[in-house]
Amino acid sequence: MGEFDFISRHFRPLAGEGAFELRNDGAVLSLPSDYELVISSDTMVENRHFLPIDPPETVGQKLLRCNLSDIAAMGAEPVGYTLNISVPLDHRYDEKWFAAFSSGLAKDQKAYGLSLLGGDTTGIEGPLVLSVTIFGRVLKGQALRRDQALPGDGVWVTGQLGAAALGLYARLGKLEDPSGKLMQAYLLPQPCLGLPLYGVVTTAMDISDGVMQDAGHIAEESGVKIILYASRLPFDTPVREVASEWEAVKLMGGDDYQLLMTCPPENEQRLQQICRGKGVKVSRIGDVRAGKFVEMLADDGQKLSFKTLGWQHF
Ligand SMILES: [Mg+2]
Question: Cα of 241 to ligand 1 centre, how many Å?
Fold first, then answer.
């Protein structure tokens, strides 16, 4: 199949306003004058971030949702995205696969209110590589950041943790998952968009590499120490009940795509109100102190130590 046929069949129907049906060299994006553009990018590589056996429809949705989660972390709303695909030359991924992949994108474009603006496709002697650059908008000066946490703030997280990391092992047949909830969390993250957090939280980021590693980024950028309490991490039933050999994955695994935030005590009620209003669970899981680095404490106050802090990219 030719590149142009491939694009017109699978991706032209996803093109939105300013994309000129993908018939030009670029797209044109306009924003209201009181907004700023937020840009973020996330790549998924076969066998590193998704499996060839995963449903193509959910691979498309996950690709978009991981990017949407970064937009949520910046306190922005999504506008559009570009998509770059490197397709293995050995035809392991066929027309049927890409049709389903693009139907997943179409479904989530509609659900989250954004559209395709452009992209590129190439052949590759290697794994399928899927890369999205996402564009969002935020009122001028109101983007959330990682460098404003202060000693005395609480550390908060939305939703539930651990299920997606365990879900990968369920997907690989290494862990029982009778309810299917673990696998579902791995296949379809739920990005936490639309919470008006500016002026309420001091920092925000999304959890992609594990709560401890990601809390470490806030600690480093803000120049503070973060203490997390293992017993306060929000775990749903199947995660809570998993055997103790899975403890490290449960506590340190990534792929949650929940928001991690720091919030001063005087804004805690407001934060809880905002989340309740959107039907989002929010839990206080730690404290910001003076110092550096991140620690996770067990119930007895002992420091927990793990071989790695979370997902390693390299
Ligand atoms: Mg992120």
Answer: 28
